[in-house]
Amino acid sequence: MSLHIESQGSGEPLLLIHGWGMHGGMWGQVAEQLALTHRVHLVDLPGHGGSAACTPYELDNLVQQLSEQFGEPLAVCGWSLGGQVALRWAQLHPEQIKKLVLVATTPCFVQQDDWSGAMAAETLQDFAASLMQNHALTLKRFLALQLRGSENERELLLDLRARLYANGEPDIKALQGGLDILRDTDLRGQLKHLAQPALVIAGGRDTLTPAAASEYLAQTLPDARFVKIEGAAHAPFLSHPQIFMQHMTSFLNE
Protein backbone atom coordinates (compact mmCIF):
# COMPACT_ATOMS: atom_id res chain seq x y z
CA MET A 1 0.00 0.00 0.00
CA SER A 2 1.04 3.61 -0.47
CA LEU A 3 1.06 6.02 2.46
CA HIS A 4 0.00 9.64 2.08
CA ILE A 5 3.13 11.76 2.53
CA GLU A 6 3.50 15.51 2.08
CA SER A 7 7.03 16.82 1.61
CA GLN A 8 8.48 20.30 1.83
CA GLY A 9 11.85 22.01 1.98
CA SER A 10 15.27 20.71 0.98
CA GLY A 11 18.31 19.26 2.70
CA GLU A 12 18.77 16.20 4.87
CA PRO A 13 15.60 14.07 5.02
CA LEU A 14 13.46 14.19 8.17
CA LEU A 15 10.25 12.23 8.72
CA LEU A 16 7.63 13.36 11.26
CA ILE A 17 5.29 10.65 12.62
CA HIS A 18 2.14 11.76 14.42
CA GLY A 19 0.39 10.19 17.42
CA TRP A 20 -2.82 8.21 17.92
CA GLY A 21 -5.88 9.53 16.12
CA MET A 22 -3.99 12.42 14.51
CA HIS A 23 -2.48 13.08 11.06
CA GLY A 24 0.61 14.67 9.54
CA GLY A 25 -0.91 18.14 9.52
CA MET A 26 -0.88 18.29 13.32
CA TRP A 27 2.80 19.32 13.36
CA GLY A 28 1.84 22.86 12.35
CA GLN A 29 4.44 25.59 12.23
CA VAL A 30 7.20 23.31 13.52
CA ALA A 31 7.14 21.45 10.20
CA GLU A 32 7.37 24.73 8.29
CA GLN A 33 10.38 25.86 10.32
CA LEU A 34 12.15 22.54 9.98
CA ALA A 35 11.63 22.70 6.22
CA LEU A 36 13.93 25.74 6.11
CA THR A 37 16.90 23.43 6.67
CA HIS A 38 15.60 19.89 5.96
CA ARG A 39 13.55 17.93 3.48
CA VAL A 40 10.58 17.34 5.77
CA HIS A 41 8.18 14.47 5.15
CA LEU A 42 4.79 14.52 6.90
CA VAL A 43 3.24 11.06 6.90
CA ASP A 44 -0.32 9.99 7.64
CA LEU A 45 -0.12 6.62 9.37
CA PRO A 46 -2.37 3.90 7.91
CA GLY A 47 -6.03 4.66 8.51
CA HIS A 48 -5.36 8.35 9.23
CA GLY A 49 -5.61 11.37 6.98
CA GLY A 50 -5.05 10.37 3.36
CA SER A 51 -3.65 6.88 4.06
CA ALA A 52 -5.77 3.77 3.75
CA ALA A 53 -5.90 1.39 6.72
CA CYS A 54 -3.68 -1.69 6.77
CA THR A 55 -4.36 -5.24 7.91
CA PRO A 56 -3.34 -6.44 10.41
CA TYR A 57 -3.07 -3.18 12.34
CA GLU A 58 0.02 -4.08 14.34
CA LEU A 59 3.19 -2.20 15.22
CA ASP A 60 5.48 -4.26 12.99
CA ASN A 61 3.14 -3.80 10.05
CA LEU A 62 3.14 -0.01 10.52
CA VAL A 63 6.93 -0.13 10.52
CA GLN A 64 6.93 -2.24 7.37
CA GLN A 65 4.70 0.26 5.56
CA LEU A 66 7.09 3.09 6.44
CA SER A 67 10.21 1.08 5.66
CA GLU A 68 8.96 0.37 2.14
CA GLN A 69 8.31 4.07 1.47
CA PHE A 70 11.80 5.39 2.18
CA GLY A 71 14.88 4.13 0.42
CA GLU A 72 17.47 6.49 1.87
CA PRO A 73 18.54 6.72 5.53
CA LEU A 74 16.80 9.56 7.35
CA ALA A 75 16.15 11.16 10.71
CA VAL A 76 12.82 10.26 12.27
CA CYS A 77 10.82 12.28 14.78
CA GLY A 78 7.95 10.42 16.44
CA TRP A 79 5.31 11.82 18.76
CA SER A 80 3.66 9.54 21.35
CA LEU A 81 2.49 6.44 19.42
CA GLY A 82 4.64 7.72 16.56
CA GLY A 83 7.63 7.54 18.90
CA GLN A 84 6.97 3.87 19.56
CA VAL A 85 6.76 3.30 15.81
CA ALA A 86 10.11 5.07 15.39
CA LEU A 87 11.75 2.99 18.13
CA ARG A 88 10.55 -0.27 16.63
CA TRP A 89 11.65 0.85 13.16
CA ALA A 90 15.13 1.63 14.49
CA GLN A 91 15.25 -1.86 15.96
CA LEU A 92 14.01 -3.75 12.89
CA HIS A 93 15.79 -1.68 10.21
CA PRO A 94 18.66 0.18 11.91
CA GLU A 95 20.32 0.97 8.59
CA GLN A 96 17.37 3.19 7.63
CA ILE A 97 17.40 5.43 10.72
CA LYS A 98 20.18 8.01 11.18
CA LYS A 99 18.80 9.84 14.22
CA LEU A 100 15.77 9.63 16.49
CA VAL A 101 13.76 12.43 18.06
CA LEU A 102 11.23 10.99 20.50
CA VAL A 103 8.54 13.40 21.68
CA ALA A 104 6.29 12.51 24.65
CA THR A 105 7.30 8.91 24.05
CA THR A 106 7.30 6.01 26.47
CA PRO A 107 8.61 2.51 25.81
CA CYS A 108 5.57 1.11 27.64
CA PHE A 109 2.29 3.04 27.67
CA VAL A 110 0.40 1.07 30.33
CA GLN A 111 1.32 0.14 33.88
CA GLN A 112 3.10 -3.15 34.59
CA ASP A 113 4.12 -4.80 37.86
CA ASP A 114 7.56 -3.21 37.44
CA TRP A 115 6.41 -0.07 35.61
CA SER A 116 4.23 2.32 37.58
CA GLY A 117 4.84 5.59 35.71
CA ALA A 118 2.23 4.95 33.04
CA MET A 119 -1.49 4.87 32.31
CA ALA A 120 -3.60 2.31 34.16
CA ALA A 121 -4.74 -0.51 31.88
CA GLU A 122 -8.31 0.08 33.03
CA THR A 123 -8.18 3.67 31.79
CA LEU A 124 -7.08 2.56 28.34
CA GLN A 125 -9.83 -0.07 28.33
CA ASP A 126 -12.35 2.67 29.07
CA PHE A 127 -11.05 4.59 26.06
CA ALA A 128 -11.48 1.51 23.87
CA ALA A 129 -15.06 1.02 25.08
CA SER A 130 -15.89 4.69 24.56
CA LEU A 131 -14.43 4.53 21.07
CA MET A 132 -17.01 1.94 20.07
CA GLN A 133 -19.86 4.04 21.42
CA ASN A 134 -18.81 7.46 20.08
CA HIS A 135 -15.44 7.73 18.40
CA ALA A 136 -15.73 11.47 17.67
CA LEU A 137 -16.35 12.28 21.33
CA THR A 138 -13.53 9.95 22.39
CA LEU A 139 -11.07 11.72 20.09
CA LYS A 140 -12.06 15.11 21.51
CA ARG A 141 -11.64 13.73 25.01
CA PHE A 142 -8.20 12.45 24.10
CA LEU A 143 -7.21 15.88 22.77
CA ALA A 144 -8.20 17.41 26.09
CA LEU A 145 -6.10 14.87 27.99
CA GLN A 146 -3.07 15.59 25.80
CA LEU A 147 -3.14 19.27 26.70
CA ARG A 148 -4.33 19.09 30.31
CA GLY A 149 -2.17 21.27 32.51
CA SER A 150 -0.25 22.83 29.62
CA GLU A 151 0.37 26.53 29.44
CA ASN A 152 -2.12 28.10 26.99
CA GLU A 153 -4.25 24.94 27.36
CA ARG A 154 -7.53 26.52 26.20
CA GLU A 155 -6.09 28.14 23.07
CA LEU A 156 -4.19 25.00 22.10
CA LEU A 157 -7.26 22.82 22.52
CA LEU A 158 -9.34 25.04 20.27
CA ASP A 159 -6.59 24.94 17.64
CA LEU A 160 -6.21 21.16 17.78
CA ARG A 161 -9.95 20.58 17.59
CA ALA A 162 -10.10 22.78 14.50
CA ARG A 163 -7.37 20.72 12.82
CA LEU A 164 -8.47 17.27 13.96
CA TYR A 165 -10.46 16.41 10.81
CA ALA A 166 -8.63 18.73 8.42
CA ASN A 167 -7.19 15.72 6.55
CA GLY A 168 -10.27 13.53 6.86
CA GLU A 169 -11.70 11.30 9.58
CA PRO A 170 -9.56 8.43 10.91
CA ASP A 171 -10.65 4.85 10.26
CA ILE A 172 -12.35 3.29 13.30
CA LYS A 173 -10.40 0.04 12.90
CA ALA A 174 -7.15 2.00 12.80
CA LEU A 175 -8.13 3.78 16.01
CA GLN A 176 -8.91 0.46 17.67
CA GLY A 177 -5.67 -1.04 16.39
CA GLY A 178 -3.70 1.94 17.68
CA LEU A 179 -5.11 1.47 21.17
CA ASP A 180 -4.20 -2.22 20.99
CA ILE A 181 -0.62 -1.26 20.11
CA LEU A 182 -0.46 1.12 23.08
CA ARG A 183 -1.90 -1.59 25.34
CA ASP A 184 0.41 -4.41 24.22
CA THR A 185 3.74 -2.75 23.38
CA ASP A 186 6.66 -2.94 25.79
CA LEU A 187 9.95 -1.96 24.18
CA ARG A 188 12.04 -1.67 27.33
CA GLY A 189 13.99 -4.84 26.63
CA GLN A 190 15.18 -3.63 23.23
CA LEU A 191 16.30 -0.10 24.11
CA LYS A 192 19.91 -0.93 25.03
CA HIS A 193 20.47 -2.34 21.53
CA LEU A 194 19.52 0.84 19.63
CA ALA A 195 22.70 2.64 18.63
CA GLN A 196 21.22 5.67 16.84
CA PRO A 197 21.76 9.09 18.45
CA ALA A 198 18.49 10.11 20.09
CA LEU A 199 16.90 13.24 21.52
CA VAL A 200 14.08 12.56 23.99
CA ILE A 201 11.76 15.51 24.65
CA ALA A 202 9.15 15.41 27.40
CA GLY A 203 6.56 17.83 28.75
CA GLY A 204 6.91 18.54 32.44
CA ARG A 205 3.12 18.45 32.86
CA ASP A 206 2.39 15.44 30.66
CA THR A 207 -0.18 13.16 32.32
CA LEU A 208 -0.41 10.63 29.44
CA THR A 209 3.28 9.79 29.17
CA PRO A 210 4.91 11.12 32.34
CA ALA A 211 8.28 12.79 31.98
CA ALA A 212 9.80 10.08 34.19
CA ALA A 213 9.04 7.49 31.49
CA SER A 214 10.78 9.60 28.85
CA GLU A 215 13.72 10.11 31.21
CA TYR A 216 14.00 6.34 31.64
CA LEU A 217 13.98 6.04 27.85
CA ALA A 218 16.86 8.48 27.52
CA GLN A 219 18.85 6.83 30.30
CA THR A 220 18.47 3.36 28.79
CA LEU A 221 19.23 4.18 25.15
CA PRO A 222 23.01 3.98 24.54
CA ASP A 223 23.33 7.42 22.93
CA ALA A 224 20.55 9.73 24.05
CA ARG A 225 19.95 13.05 25.74
CA PHE A 226 16.87 14.13 27.69
CA VAL A 227 15.06 17.46 27.60
CA LYS A 228 12.08 18.32 29.78
CA ILE A 229 10.09 21.38 28.73
CA GLU A 230 8.49 22.84 31.83
CA GLY A 231 4.95 24.12 31.35
CA ALA A 232 4.29 21.71 28.48
CA ALA A 233 2.00 18.70 28.53
CA HIS A 234 1.75 15.96 25.87
CA ALA A 235 2.36 18.21 22.85
CA PRO A 236 5.43 20.37 23.64
CA PHE A 237 6.02 21.15 19.95
CA LEU A 238 2.66 22.94 19.89
CA SER A 239 2.69 24.63 23.29
CA HIS A 240 6.37 25.66 23.30
CA PRO A 241 7.49 25.64 19.63
CA GLN A 242 10.47 27.96 20.08
CA ILE A 243 12.07 25.94 22.89
CA PHE A 244 11.24 22.72 21.07
CA MET A 245 12.85 23.98 17.86
CA GLN A 246 15.98 25.13 19.63
CA HIS A 247 16.67 21.67 20.99
CA MET A 248 15.61 19.82 17.86
CA THR A 249 17.58 21.89 15.34
CA SER A 250 20.68 21.81 17.54
CA PHE A 251 20.48 18.02 17.69
CA LEU A 252 19.72 17.51 13.98
CA ASN A 253 22.50 19.83 12.83
CA GLU A 254 25.26 18.19 14.86
Detailed description of the structure:
The protein is an alpha/beta fold and 254 residues long. It has a single domain (5-252), classed as Alpha/Beta hydrolase fold, catalytic domain (Rossmann fold). The protein has helices at 29-34, 59-69, 81-92, 121-133, 135-147, 153-163, 172-184, 211-220, 236-239, 241-252, and strands at 5-8, 12-17, 38-43, 74-79, 97-103, 198-203, 224-229. Strands 1-3-2-4-5-6-7 form a 7-stranded mixed β-sheet, sandwiched between helices. Helix 2 crosses helix 3, helix 4 packs antiparallel against helix 5 (135-147) and helix 4 runs antiparallel to helix 7 (172-184). The longest helix is centred in the middle third of the chain and has 13 residues, at 121-133. The model has no long low-confidence stretch (mean pLDDT 95).
Quick summary:
The chain is α/β, with parallel strands linked by helices and 254 residues long.
| Biggest sheet strand line-up | 1-3-2-4-5-6-7
CATH architecture: 3-Layer(aba) Sandwich
Structural class: alpha/beta
What kind of sheet is the major sheet? Answer: 7 strands, mixed
The CATH class label is: Alpha Beta
Query: How much helicity do the residues have?
Result: 40-55%
Residue stretches low in confidence (pLDDT < 50, at least 5 long) are none
Please tell me the total number of domains: 1
CATH homologous superfamily assignment:
Alpha/Beta hydrolase fold, catalytic domain
Write down the overall mean pLDDT. Answer: 95
Share of residues in strands: 15-25%
Radius of gyration over C-alpha positions, nearest whole angstrom = 16 Å
The string of secondary-structure elements, in order, is EEHEHEHEHHHHEHEHH
Q: N- to C-terminal separation?
A: 34 Å
Number of helices: 10
DSSP summary, beta strand count: 7
> According to CATH, what is the topology?
Rossmann fold
Instruction: Write down the overall geometry.
Output: globular
